[in-house]
């Protein structure tokens, strides 16, 4: 049972949790459904009794056998024919695996936890790397007047589902970082087993450290700049060292791909460069080798959300008297320099470093990919944002973690437990199609039972919250009437930065009150969320909402629940009918809470941002219209969008929920639930997301890593240096076509002839392209297609080359083209990689800009 408790698969495997619950149901609930705490407190007599219970032992054998088969059997990854990475190292500052291991603050950590779980289900050989925070993030309560209070309980690793990584002789494995002033930062390594995935968590609270260094891993996102810098150095540099130690001790395959989840772990690239420097490679060669096998994911849609440090602070922590002593500090600083218009040269930007150290990068939804390309376009001067080499992989959620047991049981009745489990973990539209066969009555009874469970949960949590706020039992009788299992229930729960607009629903309080208290079609709202401890603005938003919810007129219809976390979320998502999300578009990178709600048959009501912008259909829910045009001031924008939200609730959503058909069921609502489950369900899975990472990013990165041996990396680095030095002499001098006049017919083909100067480079060093496409109102080419042209003959006496090629006029409407020159090398991931491009001068553009109107 100890082995079962120490593998976190129990957090998403119902059979294992049921086994532990049967040991002692009351103690299981008191332990927060944490098997480690349960086993630590169960009476020896009870264990002896279970040891003689044949039925229990049979169940124990079955669950243990199931775990063994899960850990050792082939899964999706092992069935692929492509040469996939032997291992992938996945670095993140936070991981939300289970409430029993509170090492997360919000969406980034929950996403990272879901990524690990889905990788485990698919058999992807991932190694997770993070930090172990002794106080986690923080626990939240409210004062009597509704102000957020923070509490930092101390976590003892020995009471968590963790094992210390040890040498064969039993001594703890440590990693060490050098600090200025001949100091050291030491950290031990704790191992969490997330199904098949090892998660390594570094902990600086060791006796050998001075008090300041012991506190480096005290809190998630706490402390000042130097504290954060040390955390991120430990995560990135110490994390690579921890991975090396783990692989050496266990025989785990060494990672071929390193995945940096947000910029916090970006220093991992520096450590890998230092490793190759120690093998005799120069900096530029090592940089190319490291870039080839690195993937960087950005989750931040605004520059203000990126970690940036003072250059002098960074410089002090690297070099001869600190960490990475053999690496030139200036080369490190250049990696994070904001060397683009509008950048601040005195700051070191972690996301910029992450992009420069990774050959492949992505945002976390289609819209966020577009926003990221715009935001970081300065790193690739001369290229339109759509050509910036940042793709997107839309986030997903780990369904076995977030789907309520009641929903799972309904699916199991329909297609069997095994097929339901596979549909949730791997994803298969055929299995999800079976939702269409579930009877309307079964869907409606499921939704009501989930709502009823939420009502009971809310009352219990609300009563506990009011007691923390100082209320006596005699004051709290009203809580027994809070919420109604037959009333349309809206959920809103997330972090509370200003852009998520927690209080948009309060914009017109009388109108909201009318909605809450409508005599025939009332709504009820459950709200939760934490503000960052340093964000007084966020705390004021919480207080504003709490004070409204405290009003005796409406407090039975709207509640704020403090201490939002995984345990609460797992009850909240299934029990709501509507999941509300109203951020300022496009500031929500993805926003996965609505995905978790959807997997339980909850409909989404959201601004078209993040994932909802990508997958919204009227079948699945409602889109809140946005007023994000240029010139709309923030106050007016909030007023317009709040009014649109009220209109949707009054005119479309509540009638759909309350209008009944001849059988007494809300037929339109049930059909929307059915379509949400059957059509949206397979898309929002973390299994789909991880498969995309494997196929689109990990596999290409592994191929690039293998191709980039020291000789290839050295050759590429030397070639890049030569190209950069010569690029000022690369020019497009003349463009002519095989037709004359300003128009041409659809379907015809032009012959292009271009004369270029290569500045001492050779044709094999470049690619000359004809770029064509539809022309917008400002005569810019949109939806461009690039076609390579070929050199003809030898250079002329002036050293100019002639390139030729066809150009098909294959689109109706305004059509145009131009010519450009890019660096060309087989080991580049894209033509934009170096940020170099040569285009015609203005007089040549006139000749090249043939338009078909």
UniProtKB/TrEMBL annotation:
Belongs to the glycogen phosphorylase family. GO terms for molecular function: glycogen phosphorylase activity; pyridoxal phosphate binding. The modification N6-(pyridoxal phosphate)lysine is found at residue 596. Phosphorylase is an important allosteric enzyme in carbohydrate metabolism. Enzymes from different sources differ in their regulatory mechanisms and in their natural substrates. However, all known phosphorylases share catalytic and structural properties. Its EC number is 2.4.1.1. Pfam families: DUF3417, Phosphorylase. Transmembrane segments: none annotated. Keywords: Allosteric enzyme, Carbohydrate metabolism, Glycosyltransferase, Pyridoxal phosphate, Transferase. It comes from Streptomyces caelestis. The keyword Oxidoreductase does not apply. It is an enzyme of class 2 (transferase). This is glycogen phosphorylase. It catalyses: [(1->4)-alpha-D-glucosyl](n) + phosphate = [(1->4)-alpha-D-glucosyl](n-1) + alpha-D-glucose 1-phosphate. Its cofactor is pyridoxal 5'-phosphate.
């Amino acid at each position: 049972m100890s082995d079962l408790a120490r593998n976190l698969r129990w957090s998403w495997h119902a059979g294992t949790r049921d086994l532990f619950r049967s040991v002692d149901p009351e103690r299981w609930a008191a332990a927060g459904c944490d098997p480690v705490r349960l086993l630590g407190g169960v009476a020896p007599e009870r264990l002896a009794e279970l040891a003689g219970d044949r039925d229990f032992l049979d169940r124990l054998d079955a669950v243990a056998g199931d775990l063994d088969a899960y850990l050792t059997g082939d899964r999706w990854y092992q069935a692929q024919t492509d040469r996939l990475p032997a291992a992938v190292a996945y670095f993140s500052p936070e991981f939300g695996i289970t409430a029993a291991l509170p090492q997360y603050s919000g969406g980034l950590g929950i996403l990272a936890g879901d990524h690990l779980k889905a990788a485990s289900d698919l058999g992807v050989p991932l190694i997770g790397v993070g930090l172990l925070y002794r106080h986690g993030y923080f626990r939240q309560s409210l004062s009597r007047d509704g102000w957020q209070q923070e509490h930092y309980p101390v976590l003892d690793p020995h009471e968590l589902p963790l094992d210390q990584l040890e040498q064969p002789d039993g001594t703890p494995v440590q990693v060490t970082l050098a600090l200025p002033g001949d100091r050291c930062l030491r950290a031990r390594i704790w191992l969490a087993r997330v199904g098949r995935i090892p998660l390594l968590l570094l902990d600086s609270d060791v006796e050998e450290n001075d008090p300041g260094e012991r506190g480096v891993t005290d809190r998630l996102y706490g402390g000042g700049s130097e504290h954060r810098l040390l955390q991120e150095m430990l995560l990135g540099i110490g994390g690579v060292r921890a991975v090396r130690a783990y692989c050496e001790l266990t025989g785990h395959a060494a990672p071929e791909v390193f995945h940096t989840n947000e910029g916090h772990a970006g220093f991992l690239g520096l450590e890998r460069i230092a490793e190759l420097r120690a093998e005799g490679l120069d900096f530029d060669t090592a940089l190319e080798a490291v870039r080839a096998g690195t993937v960087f994911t950005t989750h931040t849609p605004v520059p203000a959300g990126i970690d940036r440090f003072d250059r002098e602070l960074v410089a002090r922590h690297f070099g001869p008297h600190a960490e990475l002593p053999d690496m030139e500090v200036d080369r490190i600083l250049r990696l994070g320099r904001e060397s683009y218009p509008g950048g601040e040269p005195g700051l070191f930007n972690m996301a910029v470093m992450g992009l420069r150290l990774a050959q492949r990068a992505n945002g976390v939804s289609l819209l966020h990919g577009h926003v990221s390309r715009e935001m970081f376009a300065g790193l690739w001067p001369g290229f339109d944002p759509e050509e910036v080499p940042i793709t997107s992989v839309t986030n997903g959620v780990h369904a076995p973690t977030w789907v309520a047991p009641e929903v799972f049981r309904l699916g199991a009745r329909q297609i069997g437990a095994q097929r339901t489990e596979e549909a949730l973990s791997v994803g298969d539209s055929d299995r999800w199609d079976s939702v269409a066969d579930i009877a309307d009555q079964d869907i409606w009874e499921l939704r009501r039972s989930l709502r009823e469970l939420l009502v009971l949960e809310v009352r219990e949590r609300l009563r506990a919250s009011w007691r923390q706020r100082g209320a006596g039992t005699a004051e709290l009788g009203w809580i027994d009437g809070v919420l109604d299992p037959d009333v349309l229930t809206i959920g809103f729960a997330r972090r509370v930065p200003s852009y998520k607009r927690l209080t948009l629903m309060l914009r017109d309080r009388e109108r909201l009150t009318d909605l809450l208290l409508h005599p025939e079609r009332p709504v009820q709202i459950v709200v939760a969320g934490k503000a960052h401890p340093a964000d007084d603005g966020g705390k004021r938003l919480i207080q504003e909402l709490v004070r409204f919810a405290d009003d005796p007129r409406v407090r039975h219809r709207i509640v704020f629940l403090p201490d939002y976390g995984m345990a609460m979320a797992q009850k909240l998502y299934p029990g709501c009918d509507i999941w509300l999300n109203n951020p300022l578009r496009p500031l929500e990178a993805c926003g996965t809470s609505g995905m978790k709600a959807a997997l339980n048959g909850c409909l989404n009501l959201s601004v078209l941002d993040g994932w909802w912008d990508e997958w919204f259909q009227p079948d699945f829910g409602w889109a809140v219209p946005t007023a994000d045009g240029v010139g709309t001031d923030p106050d007016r924008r909030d007023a317009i969008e709040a009014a649109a939200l009220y209109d949707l609730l009054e005119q479309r959503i509540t009638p759909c929920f309350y209008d009944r058909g001849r059988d007494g069921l809300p037929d339109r609502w049930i059909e929307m639930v059915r379509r949400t489950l059957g059509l949206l369900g397979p898309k929002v899975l973390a299994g789909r997301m991880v498969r995309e990472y494997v196929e689109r990013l990990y596999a290409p990165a592994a191929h690039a890593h293998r191709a980039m041996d020291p000789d290839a990396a050295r050759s590429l680095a030397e070639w890049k240096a030569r190209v950069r030095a010569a690029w000022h002499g690369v020019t497009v001098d003349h463009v002519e076509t095989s037709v004359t006049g300003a128009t041409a017919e659809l379907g015809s083909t032009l012959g292009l002839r271009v004369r270029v100067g290569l500045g001492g480079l050779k044709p094999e060093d470049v690619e000359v392209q004809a770029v064509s496409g539809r022309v917008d109102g400002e005569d810019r080419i949109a939806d461009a297609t690039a076609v390579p042209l070929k050199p003809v003959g030898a250079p002329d006496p002036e050293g100019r080359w002639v390139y030729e090629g066809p150009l098909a006029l294959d689109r109706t409407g305004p059509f145009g083209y131009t010519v450009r020159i890019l660096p060309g090398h087989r080991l580049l991931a894209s033509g934009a990689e170096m940020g170099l491009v040569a285009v015609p001068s203005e007089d040549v553009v006139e000749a090249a800009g043939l338009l078909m109107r």
